[in-house]
Specification:
It is built from no helices and 11 strands. It is mainly beta and 119 residues long. Strands 2, 4, 5, 6, 9, 10 and 11 form a 7-stranded mixed beta sheet that branches. Strand 5 (46-51) and strand 6 (57-59) form a beta hairpin. The chain starts with a strand and ends with a strand.
């Protein structure tokens, strides 16, 4: 079993910052890509950013220059620093990892952490 525990969401004013964390645990042999997705009310879930095991990153156009994804492989943790937050960043943020277990390579999702950007 693989467990993902997300933290760091909350209420912040426009222009503020938050740092999301997602720690993976369980019978994991290795982790490939790690990423953050978000889903706003009434909208589809969308990719925000992801990072490969080698450290290559990819960002949605809407967050480029404001969000930074990183990972600590020793801690099996992915982070996302979110700066200059806007009301349109309000959503539930989910982490996803591609992990190799005895079942092979599978995607695993966290339960989500809400981010609200409002004055």
């Amino acid at each position: 079993q693989v467990q993902l525990v997300e933290s760091g969401g909350g209420l912040v004013q426009p222009g503020g910052s938050l740092r999301l964390s997602c720690a993976a645990s369980g019978s994991i042999f290795s982790i490939n890509a790690m990423g953050w997705y978000r889903q706003a009310p009434g909208k589809q879930r969308e990719l925000v950013a992801d990072i490969t095991s080698g450290g290559s990153t990819n960002y949605a156009d809407s967050v480029k220059g404001r969000f930074t994804i990183s990972r600590d492989n020793a801690k099996s943790t992915v982070y996302m620093q979110m700066n200059s937050l806007k009301p349109e960043d309000t959503a539930v943020y989910y982490c996803k990892i591609g992990a190799v277990t005895y079942r092979g390579l599978m995607d695993y999702w966290g339960k989500g952490t809400p981010v609200t950007v409002s004055s």
